[in-house]
Structures are given as C-alpha cells and as structure tokens.
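Morning!

This is the sequence you dropped in the shared folder:
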Amino acid sequence: MAAALPAPTRDPAWIGRIFWLGAGLVLLWPLMVATEFRPWILLERDNLEVTGQFLGSFLPPAHASDFLALVARESWRTVAIATAGMTLALVVALPLTLLSTRVLSVSALSGRMARGPFWLRQGLRWLLIVLRSVPELVWALVFVRVVGLGPTAGVLAIALTYGGMLGKVYGEILESGEGHAAQTLLRNGSSRLQAFAYGLLPQNAAELTSYTVYRWECAIRSSVVLGFVGAGGLGQQLDNSMKMFNGGEVLTMLAVFVALVALADRVSAGLRKALG
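The structure's back. Tokens below.
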C-alpha cells in the first residue's frame, strides 16, 4: 500500500493568487485616481468632529404620535407606489417577453427565424433597452412635469424602467432553460401563450418569481428616492425633514425604510421556499 503524501505546508496556488491580486490593484489604481477616491480624509480630525456633530443631530429619534401616524401613512403609500409600479411593469414586460423570446418563435422552429419576426424581435429588444436605460429618476422628473407632483409620477416611472428590466431578464431566464417542451407544443399548433404557460413557466416559475420579488424590493427603494423629486411617499417626507435639518425625524423614517426592505426580503424568502 502506497504511503500517503504529506499535506502541503502552504497554499500551492499562492503565486497565482498574488499575481492576480497585483494585477487587480494595477487596474484599479487608475480608476481610483480618476474618481479622486481618498477615503483617508475621513479620519482627519476636523472631519471627524463634523461627522460626530452630524450623527449626533439624529438623536433622539422622533416619536411623537402625530409624526408616527404620518410616517405610517407615507410608508403605506410608498409600498403602494412600488406595488402599483411593478404591476404596470409586468403589463409592459410580459407581452414584450413573449414576442421577443426566440424559444417562443414559430418561424424559428425550422432552424432559422424568418426575416420579419427577426427584425420585430430586434426592435422589441431595443425598446426594452431604451426603457431600462433611462433611470426611473429621469422618468419621474418627466412625469412630474406632465401629471404634477404626487405618486402617479412615481408609479409611471417605476413601470417604464422596471418593465424594461423585467422584460430583459425574463427573456434570458426563459431562453437559458430547456425549451424542448415549448417547441413541441408550438409544433402541434399551440399558441405562443400556451407554450409559455405549459412549456416554459413550470420549470422557470421559481426563478421568475424570485427575480420579480427582488425587483419589487428594489422598487420600494426606488420609490423612496423618487420622493425627492416630488413623486410622493416616504421619500418626499424624508426630503422635507432633511431640508428642515430635523435629524430625529430622518432617523425614524430611515428605520422604517429598513423595516420595509427587511419585510420585502422575508416575503421573497417565503415565496422561494414555497416554490422550491
């Protein structure tokens, strides 16, 4: 019986690790110079004093009953903005996904997609690129000018940007999975919607749901940011308190915001467990 080889006393791949670490630092250094990234100035004495005074202004958190009632109403409005925006985003994304996904193309069953469907698919993909390329903050500024201040601008902004994001990722999820069942249904006369519902959705439901709930969580964060441009919700109240230098109110609303994101995370985990 051959004797066991002694265990190595050091990582045999340490030379490669050091090389790639050094290469990463060499590539990162010009980026840090270009962005004027100097975190050590945070440790200077004057800056530490300013930071301490700023953090101290947040204490104690505001807890007056009328203010907490206002925060509860605006928190509910924030969740409503995110949920309504995501619902409209699904209305935008699902048809574009069905029309732009190659595995659901009838003309591609022969091996090569026809010219008309090919260019239609490319046009829809460019539409998804345009929708998700414009940040929701820019869409909100546009809609605030059109429909005025309030939650409507936030809902429409989330709907357009997230519709483009969902459409892109949904298409990638469907095309990366097994498409044999969907193609068999299409060959036997099923509609595109039936091929999606019975051929692609069952095997991709968990991943699609997980990504959708994750985007809903992102929409909650976005709805808070959109409030800074007058789109309503908790973000607008947060902006008002910051302008009035009321740190206690800011801290309370930030704590509520963290609780909202944590709740969305638990909902996502529960759905993944139920579908897994």
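Headline: The chain is about 75% helix and 0% strand.

More detail when I'm at my desk.
O.
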